[in-house]
Amino acid sequence: MNKSTDNLLEELKAFADFGEFYNENKSEVAAVSLSDYLQELITKKRLNKADVVSQSEMSEVYVYQIISGIKTNPKREKLLCIAFGMKLSLTETQELLKKTGYAPLYAKRPFDAIIIYGLAKRLSVVEVNGLLFEYGQETLG
Questions:
Q1: What DSSP state is assigned to residue 140?
Q2: Which of 6, 7, 85, 118 could form a disulfide with 55 if both were Cys (CB 3.0 to 4.6 A apart)?
Q3: Among residues 118, 137, 135, 116, which one has the least CA distance to residue 127?
Q4: What is the model's pTM?
């Protein structure tokens, strides 16, 4: 996987036949499961799963189900809790959202602006929920 998304998009638009494009770029468009991506981040960042679970402020069983792949389609808010639990950067969080088919965070949306602020300031889920509540937004749960 060496091509940027922009490069891949330009190639996709240029190919006359999708089959040719796909055969030539199969490894570039391969989907990575949420579980695999989370495991990759945990390994790369040398995180302890128990700490991630604890800092995500969600049910231990639920977080382990997401990480292990049993729960494959969690809500966006739950993924954000995991992002805070893993202490992901904004860039890493945006990538997590993209890989799972959710909209990236958008600073013009009040909810998203608070999440972006929380990620930038390395706030906890509890602190972010306090800000969300204070500004009349739904909390992460």
A1: -
A2: 85
A3: 118
A4: 0.80
